[in-house]
Design goal:
This protein is α/β, with parallel strands linked by helices. It is built from 15 helices and 16 strands. The chain has a 6-stranded mixed β-sheet with strand order 9-2-1-12-11-10, sandwiched between helices. A 6-stranded mixed β-sheet has the order 7-6-14-15-16-13. Helix 3 packs across helix 12.
């Protein structure tokens, strides 16, 4: 039985960020991963032809680059080979009739583009971002806080309540749907089609309550973080994080599926893997898994409160998607050359995107899918043989 300060169940990028920060702070950390390599849904493989490096799942990280965690780890990550390649045109859209548009990381440029589509839409975009800017300094810290903590509760209270017994303006805006926000703010169908597909990237629908908040959040993240890709493949992030862990005395073990979290007197004290080995944790066990896996499986022998068990049984998974990876003999030609930057979408309209989501939720294949097109070799030629390229088509949803 080996002893550690911290044990992390799973090795996705969130788990590895936590492990890296804790190991760097002097804790003896063990990361346990059930698969043959660490990284979770950050994985780069040659799945088409030799020499073509494809990101199989996550590939771009606009939110990560503007996070507190990246700010703390940036120097260490760079020292271990992680280099992000970015663009000032993070996304765009092409409609079947050839109309197109781009979103720039510069608000003034984006506003001019929206005004080109429909006069007045540029000011609408500026107003939307300006309104969100009033709350952003309270919203973004919540992504790195325990929402049950006092600090988080203060921020939530300030966002949702005015302090006079009624609701703050943010509360009403937070409850809007994405469809309502896009229809209320913009007249151009191209502008709506440019923004709408990013909502299902978060596993949400255009008609989900509070998905209107996702519109402001996504636009803010795309403008602030761009559309960065790691040079040589998404798994360079995993490799750099893993090196931070091991360079500070931690260990990462793959092919080690955790079977149980061991609990004594209401406290996690270690884990047992399927081969029977056990590891003790002096300070904490971090489970980077879904709620149903945690409460129904890993804590099956523990005294978990019944309400948590019932909620875990109803844990809803997000929308799925289908991806197609291609090796290209040359980089694609775009009808609008500006779309070479970032990650654009192909769709007919916001309404078609909403219909595709509804069809998928009904168990049907979308009659007219929304496609996300990612061509990382436009920024990073090292991912393919000279003059060639990689592309991923992602159908949202399926």
């Amino acid at each position: 039985m080996e002893a550690y300060d911290i044990i992390t169940v799973g090795s996705g990028h969130n788990a590895l960020v936590a492990a890296a920060l804790l190991a760097r702070a002097g804790n003896r950390v063990l990361v346990l991963e059930k698969n043959d390599k660490s990284g979770g849904f950050v994985r780069t493989e040659e799945v088409t032809l030799p020499g073509f490096k494809h990101d199989l799942y996550a590939t771009r990280y606009p939110l990560f680059l503007i996070s507190k965690a990246y700010g703390e780890l940036e120097a260490d990550l760079r020292a271990r080979g992680l280099e992000y390649l970015n663009t000032d045109l993070p996304t765009g859209v092409v409609l079947p009739d050839g109309r197109s548009a781009i979103l720039s990381s510069d608000l003034e440029t984006s506003a001019a583009e929206f005004d080109r589509l429909s006069p007045g839409d540029g000011q609408a975009l500026a107003d939307l971002m300006g309104e969100f800017g009033k709350y952003a300094h309270k919203v973004f810290p919540l992504f790195s806080l325990d929402l049950a903590s006092k600090e988080a509760q203060v921020l939530i209270g300030e966002l949702m309540g005015s302090g006079k017994g009624d609701f703050a303006p943010f509360a009403a805006e937070f409850m809007q749907t994405a469809r309502d926000v896009l229809n209320d703010r913009f007249r151009s169908p191209v502008a709506k089609a440019l923004i709408a597909p990013w909502v299902p990237h978060l596993g949400r629908t255009l008609d989900s309550v509070s998905s209107g908040f996702d519109v402001s959040l996504l636009l803010s993240a795309l403008m602030a973080g761009g559309m960065p890709v790691p040079r040589s493949g998404a798994d360079m992030l995993v490799k750099a994080l893993a090196r931070i862990v091991t360079d500070h005395g931690g260990a990462i073990r793959c092919d080690a599926p955790v079977d149980r979290i061991l609990v004594e007197r209401g406290r996690a004290v270690g884990v047992r893997v399927k081969d029977g080995d056990t590891y003790t944790a002096g300070r904490a066990v971090i489970a980077s898994v879904n709620a149903d896996q945690l409460y129904l499986k890993l804590l099956a022998d523990a005294d978990v409160p019944r309400p948590l068990v019932q909620q875990a049984k109803r844990y809803p998974y997000g929308l799925g998607c289908v991806q197609i990876q291609l090796a290209l003999s040359k980089l694609p030609d775009w009808p609008d050359d500006r779309l070479r930057a970032g990650e654009p979408h192909l769709l007919r309209s916001m309404e078609a995107c909403a219909l595709a989501i509804a069809q998928a939720k009904n168990g049907d294949l979308p009659s007219e899918p929304t496609l996300s097109v990612d061509v990382p070799t436009q920024h990073d030629p090292s991912r393919a043989p000279r003059g060639m390229g990689c592309v991923r088509f992602l159908e949202l949803p399926a």
